[in-house]
Amino acid sequence: MADEPSITRWSFQDFKMFYDVKFGRKKESTGKDADANGHANGTAVSNGSGASNGNGRAKNTSDMAVYEQYRNQDRASSLNNNGHSSARIDERPQKPLLPPFESAEMRTLAESLSRDIIRGSPDVKWESIKGLENAKRLLKEAVVMPIKYPKYFTGLLSPWKGILLFGPPGTGKTMLAKAVATECNTTFFNISASSIVSKWRGDSEKLVKVLFELARHHAPSTIFLDEIDAIITQRGEARSEHEASRRLKTELLIQMDGLTKTDDLVFVLAATNLPWELDAALLRRLEKRILVPLPEPEARRSMFEELLPPVPDADKLPYDLMVERTEGYSGSDIRLVCKETAMQPLRRLMACLEEKHEAVPEDELPNVGPIRHEDIEVALKNTRPSAHMHTPRYEKFNNDYGSQILH
């Protein structure tokens, strides 16, 4: 640390540099040539954590948040003693990670959100989602097309900024949101209650405000609010509703209302299993409401063929029977059925190996046998649907508030 300047010759720049070095917000620049090159580029921004995960071990680049990758690039480009950037200057992003904030407190909140939320592409394609053709078509119309062809979506045809995905659990709502972010190549903010709820008074509202400012800065961007019913339910009905919760809901509504008055390509995707518990003001801001229903027979058959592909020289699996017996099953239920089916021949093999009472080398272990028809019967008997009970209620909500395509 540099020597503390005498109180008789302190200037504003001296005080600023001493404060930053003293409290660890910035590292002291290497050498005294930084003063000659200006205080603006004489220090490297750091919060003391580097590219580690808190225990001193460096993380892989693929596992690091975008914030840490950008900061590492900035650190690598400021290693020269004369303050000039190195040859890696071309690798730095054109846009700064954080927009200019009015206070250091807001910047600190933005840094925490960036480290925890901004990630790379979710890598989910439309083709990886079986069925849900209507939901895909509506999402493409609401999000993908305005980004590809902004010329047509102006005035009255301005894109929808709020989209609600509702339906039974396990039907693919989260995968649809990730597919939107992947296909549009947008910055993806995966938000849950833990991301924007703080124990400190007033910080929750500030986190919501900073989140939307970050989304505008990184536009086009997608803010995905998973299980939004845990964040903003109907207001004023429960006497146990806390003041902090009400202020958080109000700030979220204000920020979402502000999106409709700007031309920034920032989309809010919300997902819920309980759409009837959402506040009416939130439903008004979520203009496009899309039902993600249980998979249809064609979609169930595609799932079975992908998860349990036919094996040469083995009995043909009764896909038609499996589709007929899984009426009312969600996508996650069908995956459990396939997993239980594949476990049956493995259980028979394990029983044979345990009877030998001797260790078998790994390279001499026999292969798992083929799937039999009785294995499918056992799996269907042991796996029951988990999301069919409220199907009529979802259909009623869709008829009252949903967005549909007329064929």
Automatic annotation (TrEMBL):
Residues 76-85 have a biased composition (Polar residues). The keyword Lipoprotein does not apply. Pfam families: AAA, AAA_lid_3. Residues 27-36 have a biased composition (Basic and acidic residues). SUPFAM superfamilies: P-loop containing nucleoside triphosphate hydrolases. Residues 40-59 have a biased composition (Low complexity). Residues 159-296 form the AAA+ ATPase domain. It is found in: Cytoplasm, Cytoskeleton, Spindle pole. The keyword Disulfide bond does not apply. Signal peptide: none annotated. One of its GO terms (cellular component) is microtubule. Residues 27-59, 76-98 are annotated as: Disordered. Belongs to the AAA ATPase family. This is AAA+ ATPase domain-containing protein. It comes from Daucus carota subsp. sativus (Carrot).
